[in-house]
Amino acid sequence: MQPMDQRELMTLQHYLKEYGQQAEIFVSQLDMLENGRMEAMAAIEALEGMMATEDGVVLLQIGGGASVRAKILEPEKVMLAIGAEVIVERPNKDAVEFLKERIMEMEASQKKVAETLDRLRSQMNEINKRLETGYQQSMAAGQD
Amino acid sequence: MFGGLKAKLQAARSRLGSSIQTVITAPAGAGTGGGQPEPGPKMEKSAVPPEPEQPTIVEKFKVLLIERELIVSEKDVADALSELELTLLESDVALPATDAIIAHVRKSLVGKHRKIGESVDSLVVGALKAALLKVLGKGFDLLDYIRTHPRPVKILFTGVNGTGKTTTVAKIGSYLKKQGFSVVIGAGDTYRAGAIEQIGVHAERLGIKVIQHPEGGDPSAVLFDAVQYAQSHKIDVVLADTAGRFHNKANLMSQLDKIKRVMKPDLVVYVDEAVAGNDAVTRAFEFDKTIGADAVVLTKADMDSRGGAAISIAHTIGKPLMFLGTGQSYDDIALFEPARVVEELLGDT
After folding, report:
1. In terms of DSSP bridges, do strands A57-63 and B113-115 run parallel, antiparallel, or are they unpaired?
2. CB–CB of B277 and A113 under 8 A?
3. How far apart are the C-alpha atoms of B179 and A4, rounded to whole Å?
4. Pairing between β-strand B69-72 and β-strand B113-115 as defined by DSSP bridges
């Protein structure tokens, strides 16, 4: 069998590297979306918890593992960043609804990014197979 | 593309439409909700004259029928406009662009005489479309620009790291080649490991000549050589790739300034990703202020459900949006045509 041209092997290696870099970017986007989703879920839990407490006292984390007891003056009112760096005051219930919608949006985006990532990975697998074949052919040709 | 924004705008369209419809169909004596009557426009030559002895009924009309025309008052659409404003902000449309859209829709709808035969929906859609077109600007016809300027046309690509500048350069190279222009690429990103290799692979795949120096070289020298090559080989367009940088990195920005002085680009194109939303708008604004920009390309628009950056960038920084990156392959780049985008967002299909 004719061994694969060395230049073709190099080009395939370049492709693989490039796809790998793209995949890394998509993985970090997925991480960001997942972090955002988890943050929104935690916020929903906190908002609902605030409404459930009778005295409005919560543990407020202030960083470094330290927390203080804080009393929420108006648990029914929430300052919410809705986008475009705009913050509006919303009733607690509406804020929870808004965050739930945001979670759905992020999940839809995650699905899209994951699909693209899958396509990239299958292309990378294809290139890997061709590279393997090329290496084997080169080695076989070297032994002859 | 921009699926979330499309759904929200369609909802806002229905809301605006129904708020106008409500007042059209409201029975004359019933009013529309018991609010304080507002001073409506004077009625003249009424086709169905109201009872002169019952002016209060007239006052309760939110829409006045005058010679088969209707007049929409500000109060009729106030709630719907407020909802539209929040919808746009939630989609990451920048505040100045949101304000401009709301002001335009308000101006289009309030106080204007409209034929009764005209459907409410077309009234609302017309107002929304006109408002969006106003903030989207006219786009940027790159092909026309190249045809009407001395060759080679030198285009410098700038932007922050990791937004897809190098891939965009390759995509635009492919697009221009298909349009019959000859292209040379200058591998001006001599900083990032593998960037020269990356643009080299793209160029080889596309059959485009690439001018490159060893990694760590002076990008100004690479791009100067690319321009020299284009001049001596009568190439139509020079696409100059550069390393990603943030506008607040003084040394990197002064390097970009040097590149500009050396290669004297005809166009400076700022590249960012649509998914960055309002951050992309802010960064584009800062870049334009620091180094200048003539047009903008937004990548990853296919992954952007909100569409905020695409809607606001032209209005906020005053520079046109030129292309949208819409996928992984070389053909996945679309010339930004405002009318088409508006149709996609507000069309019935």
Report:
1. unpaired
2. no
3. 34
4. antiparallel
CATH fold for the domain made of B3-136: Four Helix Bundle (Hemerythrin (Met), subunit A) (1.20.120)
CB contact under 8 A, B278 and A109: no
B328 close to A (CB below 8 A): yes
- Judge if ipTM > 0.90: no
Q: What is the pLDDT of residues B234-289, one digit of tens each?
A: 999 999 999 998 888 888 888 888 999 999 999 999 999 998 888 899 999 999 98
Of the candidate CATH numbers 1.10.10.10, 3.40.50.1970, 3.90.470.20, 3.40.50.300, the domain formed by B142-337 belongs to: 3.40.50.300
CB within 8 Å: B95 and A119: no
What are the distances in angstroms from CA B12 to CA B77, B87, B105? Answer: 11, 8, 12
0.95 exceeded by the pTM?
no
Residue A60: φ, ψ to 5°: -105, 115
Contact at 8 Å (CB) between B10 and B67? no
The DSSP call for residue B161 is T
Q: Mutation test of the interface with chain A: which of B5, B89, B278, choosing the one with the most A Cβ atoms within 10 A?
A: B89
- Chain B positions in Cβ-Cβ contact with residue A86 (cut-off 8 Å): 89, 95
Interface subset of A 48-87, CB within 8 angstroms of B: 82-86
Would you kindly state where each structural domain of chain B is located, as residue ranges? 3-136, 142-337
Task: Kindly tell me the burial class for residue B216, based on how many C-beta atoms sit within 10 Å of its own C-beta (0-12, 13-18, 19 or more).
Answer: exposed
Structural domains of chain A in order of their starting residue, each with its CATH number: 6-133 (1.10.287.370)
Q: Do B90 and A17 touch (CB under 8 A)?
A: no
Residue entry with tokens 């967002």: B345
A111 in reach of chain B (CB within 8 A): no
Partners of residue A82 in chain B, C-beta under 8 Å: 86, 89-90
